[in-house]
Description:
Order of helices and strands: HHEEEEEEEE
Strand content: 35-45%
Low-confidence stretches: 9-18, 22-27
Shape: elongated
Distance between the termini: 98 Å
Structural class: alpha+beta
CATH class of the largest domain: Mainly Beta
Amino acid sequence: xxxxxxxxxxxxxxxxxxxxxxxxxxxxxxxxxxxxxxxxxxxxxxxxxxxxxxxxxxxxxxxxxxxxxxxxxxxxxxxxxxxxxxxxxxxxxxxxxxxxxxxxxxxxxxxxxxxxxxxxxxxxxxxxxxxxxxxxxxxxxxxxxxxxxxxxxxxxxxxxxxxxxxxxxxx
Length: 171
C-alpha cells in the first residue's frame, strides 16, 4: 500500500519516510505509556503535594491577654445609643485571647457570639460575631484599678462605638 504511494520516489526517500513511520509508531507507544501510567502518577503526586502544602498552613493564634486577672466571667448590662444600660450582657474572657459574648445574663438561654479580645493597659478591646454567621460587633472598655469592673461602648463591625454603652462586673 505504501509502496504504491511512493513508487516514483527514490529508495532513499522511501527509507527515510519508512524510518519516520517507525519513529511515529514508537512515539505513539511512548505516548500511550505516558497516558496510562506516567500521567496519572504525576497527577497523584502533584495533588498530594498541594494537599500537604495546604494542610501545613498555620493560622495566626489569637493574641493572649497580658494579665490573667482579666480572664473569667463578666456579667453586666448594655444599652442602645445614649440610654442607660438595662439589658443583660455577659462576656467570658478566656486565657487564649478569645471571648464568648452572651446577649443576656442567663448563659444557657442567651444568644452566643465568639470573637477575640486584646488588653492594652486598662483598655479592653473585643470583636465578636454571633453564631453561626450573624452580625459582627466591637467593644472598647476601661478597667478599674482592681480589674473587677469595666465600662465602655459598643458598635457595629469593627467600630467599637456609636451604638451604645455597657458595663460588666467580674464574677
